[in-house]
Design goal:
The complex is a heterodimer of chains A (190) and B (413). Helices cover 45% and strands 23% of the residues of chain A. By secondary structure, chain A is an alpha+beta fold. Chain A has 2 domains: 96 residues; 86 residues, Immunoglobulins (Immunoglobulin-like, Sandwich). Chain B has a domain of 127 residues: Jelly Rolls, CATH 2.60.120.380. In chain B, strands 1, 4, 7, 9 and 10 form a 5-stranded antiparallel β-sheet that branches. A 5-stranded antiparallel β-sheet of chain B has the order 2-3-8-5-6, with no helix packed on it. In chain B, a hairpin with a 7-residue loop joins strand 5 and strand 6. The chains are: A alpha+beta (190), B alpha+beta (413). At the A-B interface, helix 1, helix 2 and helix 4 of A face helix 1 and helix 2 of B.
């Protein structure tokens, strides 16, 4: 009887955690590291999601369900194994990217000479270890440098068109490159 | 339609959450954690669910509170000694009740008060004048950037001004700015003292001391001070911060001078006591040290059954707990222990069973949430301790019930 009860307590916990890993972590990795939409998802989202999963899995009598067919035990073991595999991969990938500078957005995707552009992202390094910002091969003038945002002033470029905007940290680490259009002021006046 | 049974469902959720907390703590400990889950929020929800479960369980239990009182009066020597209600003559009892016990409680309060005086963070020979932000004639709320100054003035209340402490925030980073601190008498032409301080030594939300040569005749003079940043830039500068006091002026008295004659000694002790009582933490703690006396007097009057049903003593102790939790920022072990003892005596007097202690912990939980809503984190943390204390007391009460039932069972056998 006591073992049954323990089974009913442990299973919702492990299943909720497994489903969190299988659903949330790949999605979070895509959004934050691959598509680079936001630096991180809401602080409380995984916690609330896990609690919801616990609520859902607590509704079932697991002892009764598992006693119906032994196949269910295999399915459960498969879920646990898959979640361990996904978690270890997620952890490895996440940690390898954790300290790299990453640009998530710029205040504008185009600019003219003299315009101020704000770059938002993570791991730009602190104020006292300023790096460099490049537009193509041209170094930009940095007006303000903070860990998560940089304000730059666009210089007079040798040509107009699309360039890659990226950051080179003081320790030499290079961020991802985002496309940026340098426009001819004449086009704007037309 | 089948009625849904909430209790096993809640029990299952709580147990699962508890298992998850243990599991994630273990994973974090062995270095495989990713801080995906906010364990703090998780723990709060779990504790809350445990309290709900305990409350539901207690509602379904019933027991005889008389068993606790019988057990305490018959088995515990100390409590029997405090309540000498039998086998003594009336004169002795009156003498004991109205002189010996009140005198003992006054001495207890004085002893705790003196102990508190001697264990203050400031040396005994230092007087402190606290100030709020209004003393800053120009007090910038954000980062103090290169060339910017914050300045203010205050009237010295004593001679021997020798230090100012100002509260800064380093905004959770190590900054490389250098601040210049200057002080002079108002209307004076030259700065009396000027020095540079690297801000990398500033602790977050702590008062930073700016010392200078003692000013022996500072009393009733107005002093101006300023703090200027030399290298501060956005993201690499400190800022003035709360909580109160924003700054303090400190007056250092020479021990030799204080001890030189009786008059000086008495005068300084008088000043020191007034100075300490102007500190809210100290004054409220002192009030709590003397709580046992009114508690005892209430106890004595209540025996006449005027208010016995109204749980006056319980309200009185709860008031003390709220005073200590909300108004006093520092934790004073003696005050806490005293309040725990008073609560234990209240339970005995009002014959309150463990449900009251559990209810008191719920009440503290509610107060805690309110304090957190108003960003009073220090008070919330202090009240949160009381949730734990009340639950422990409830557990001890339950133990006595169990013991009482054992005795009853043994007698019937």
């Amino acid at each position: 009887m006591k073992l049954n009860r323990l089974f009913n307590y442990f299973l919702p916990a492990f299943l909720a955690l497994s489903f969190l890993i299988l659903i949330y972590t790949p999605l979070e990795f895509r959004i934050t590291e691959v598509w680079m939409l936001v630096p991180q998802l809401g602080k409380y989202i995984p916690t609330i999601f896990l609690i919801l999963l616990v609520l859902i899995f607590s509704l079932f009598d697991w002892k009764k369900i598992l006693s119906k067919s032994k196949m269910y035990i295999f399915v459960l073991l498969l879920i646990f194994g898959a979640s361990c595999f996904v978690y270890l991969n997620y952890r490895n990938d996440k940690l390898s990217l954790e300290y790299l500078p990453r640009i998530y957005k710029t205040s504008s995707w185009w600019g003219i000479q003299g315009s101020l552009i704000k770059i938002d992202g993570v791991n730009f390094s602190p104020t006292w270890e300023k790096g460099k910002v490049f537009l193509g091969n041209e170094e930009l003038y940095v007006k303000s440098w903070e860990e998560k945002s940089i304000i730059i002033e666009q210089p007079v470029m040798s040509r107009f068109g699309q360039f890659d905007l990226y950051i080179v940290r003081e320790d030499g680490l290079i961020s991802n490159k985002v496309p940026f259009w340098v426009k001819d002021p004449k086009e704007l006046s037309l | 339609m089948m009625k849904f049974n909430w209790f096993p469902f809640l029990k299952k959720i709580t147990a699962s959450l508890f298992i998850l907390i243990l599991l994630m703590t273990l994973v974090n400990k062995i270095g495989f954690g990713m801080n995906l889950i906010n364990l703090r929020l998780f723990s709060i929800i779990t504790v809350f669910l445990i309290l709900i479960l305990v409350f539901i369980k207690l509602k379904n239990l019933s027991f005889d509170p008389k068993l606790i009182r019988d057990f305490i009066e018959n088995k515990l020597f100390i409590v029997s000694a405090i309540i000498p209600r039998h086998r003594t003559n009336l004169v002795f009892r009156r003498f004991f009740d109205w002189l010996v016990i009140p005198l003992f409680l006054i001495i207890l309060g004085l002893g705790l008060f003196l102990n508190n005086v001697l264990h203050q963070k400031e040396p005994f020979s230092v007087l402190v004048q606290t100030q709020n932000k209004s003393a800053f004639l120009y007090g910038k709320s954000g980062e103090i950037l290169a060339g910017e100054k914050v300045w203010g003035e205050f009237k010295a209340i004593e001679d021997n001004l020798g230090m100012m402490t100002i509260r800064f925030t380093n905004l959770n980073r190590i900054n490389s700015d250098v601040l210049v601190f200057r002080i002079k008498e108002k209307w004076g032409e030259d700065w009396y003292y000027e020095n540079e301080y690297k801000v990398d030594q500033f602790q977050n939300y702590q008062l930073f001391p700016f010392g200078f040569p003692l000013i022996p005749d500072s009393k009733d003079k107005i002093y101006q001070f300023e703090i200027q940043s030399t290298k501060g830039v956005v993201g690499d500068a400190v800022a003035l911060s709360g909580p109160l006091p924003i700054f303090e002026a400190k007056y250092q008295f020479s021990k030799d001078k204080i001890l030189s004659n009786q008059h000086e000694k008495l005068l300084f002790v008088h000043k020191k006591l007034l100075n300490l009582m102007s500190n809210r933490d100290f004054s409220v703690t002192t009030i709590i040290f003397f709580f046992p006396l009114p508690f005892y007097l209430l106890w004595s009057f209540l025996t006449k059954k005027y208010f016995a049903k109204a749980y006056i003593l319980a309200y009185f102790v709860i008031l003390g707990i709220l005073l200590d939790g909300i108004l006093v920022h520092q934790i004073n072990n003696q005050a806490t222990l005293l309040l725990i003892c008073l609560w234990a005596l209240t339970l005995i007097f009002h014959k309150m069973n463990y449900k009251f202690s559990v209810f008191a912990s719920f009440f503290c939980l509610f107060v805690c949430f309110l304090l957190l809503l108003f960003d009073n984190n220090i008070a919330a943390a202090k009240i949160a301790n009381w949730i734990y204390f009340f639950l422990v007391i409830a557990m001890i009460q339950l133990f006595f019930v169990y013991l009482g039932e054992k005795i009853k069972y043994a007698k019937t056998e």
